[in-house]
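Re: that chain you flagged

S.,

Sorry for the slow reply, it's been a week of failed gels. I finally had a moment to sit down with the sequence you sent. For the record, here it is as I used it:
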Amino acid sequence: MHGAHARDLGTLKDHIIACRKCPRLVRYREQVAREKVARFRDWTYWGRPVPGFGDPAARMLIVGLAPAAHGGNRTGRVFTGDRSGDWLYRALHRAGFANQPTSVSVDDGLRLTDAYVAAAVRCAPPGNRPSPIEFARCRPYLEAEIELLRGLKVVVVLGQVAMDHFLRAWRAAGREVPRPRPSFGHGRVADLGPVTLLASYHPSQRNTQTGLLTEEMFDGIFRRARGFLEGTPPEAAPRTRTKRETRRGL
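Prediction finished late last night. Pasting the structure tokens below so you have them in one place:
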């Protein structure tokens, strides 16, 4: 079954959860679910592919890379139960897209309004590095979400890899990708015709702990997304400091 043939998001979720296309990812996600880590030893891990989550009428799609081994692979919901998810849902709450700032389990009451969260790959990969064939096998699911989220106006991509694979799915879904191809940079915007593409650094621990991505910068992305949706002039993204400015303390 190709994800692009699903008739609705509910059917698509069922297909994603049942997917066993990638032997390496199946082995890894199930091994992690069996072995766990000490801090989550009392959890029953999900250990399956993690479907998209959010509002079926969403005008904004957020695309990440893949579930975390002890985040989405444990909880069964994308960006739930890890520090990247803490950043994402806090920012979505502040921008009015989420009813609460926390995302810890599938039964925690979190609801999104006008936003839908997905990933380029739906299974936790070893070393957080899916292979090219694993990206390709998973791509029809993102294609299907592009087609089924018919009100899309804004797509926020979290990281360069997510941007690259979103654009591949966008083209595979029969949509136009501009030439020259949009390049990645935090706060960069590209016009894809029916949607505006907005790029952000990924809220990974590496990016947040080093200060490459601050909460102010991340909030700015979703304020701009809100501006695009509401037709108000979007603010400029906070400019990334140069290395020279950083050394001088500017």
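What I noticed first: Confidence is low (pLDDT under 50) at residues 237-250.

Talk soon,
D.
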